[in-house]
């Protein structure tokens, strides 16, 4: 009888220890994953920033380009944005 109780207590104790170890390991893993994913996603917002930034319409072909990555041309105090040098050339030839 005492042996049975001792076994039961030992089993419960072992389960508790194993669970806590798994918990610590899992926490360590999730932190490691979080840490690595944070370093991986860190350059993404920077590279996405120009795309999500202000959109400007190309007056030649009508394409919307981000102000940060598009070609800019100031004509008569107004800034125009172009998707390609070809569109810029076309616009300058027109004006
Ligand atoms: Zn264009």
Describe this structure in words.
The protein is α+β, with helices and mostly antiparallel strands. It folds into 2 domains: about 40 residues; about 45 residues, no CATH class. Helix content is about 65%, strand content about 15%. The chain contains 3 helices and 4 strands. The strands form 2 sheets. It has a two-stranded antiparallel ribbon with strand order 1-2. Strands 3-4 form a two-stranded antiparallel ribbon. It is rod-shaped. The N and C termini lie far apart (about 100 Å). The relative contact order is 0.08. The site of zinc ion has 8 residues, from loops.
Notable traits:
two-stranded antiparallel sheet; alpha+beta; 95 residues; 4 strands; binds zinc ion; 63% helix; two-stranded antiparallel ribbon; 2 domains
User: How much beta, percentage-wise?
Assistant: 15-25%
What's the assembly state of these chains? Answer: single chain
Rg, rounded, reads: 31 Å
> In order across it, which strands form the biggest sheet?
1-2
The biggest beta sheet reads: 2 strands, antiparallel
């Amino acid at each position: 009888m005492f042996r049975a109780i001792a076994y039961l207590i030992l089993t419960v104790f072992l389960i508790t220890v194993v669970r806590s170890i798994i918990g610590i390991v899992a926490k360590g893993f999730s932190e490691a994953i979080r840490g690595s994913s944070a370093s991986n996603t860190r350059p993404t917002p920077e590279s996405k920033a120009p795309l999500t930034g202000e959109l400007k319409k190309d007056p030649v072909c009508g394409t919307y380009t981000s102000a940060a990555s598009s070609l800019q041309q100031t004509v008569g105090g107004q800034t125009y944005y172009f998707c390609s040098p070809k569109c810029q050339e076309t616009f300058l030839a027109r004006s």
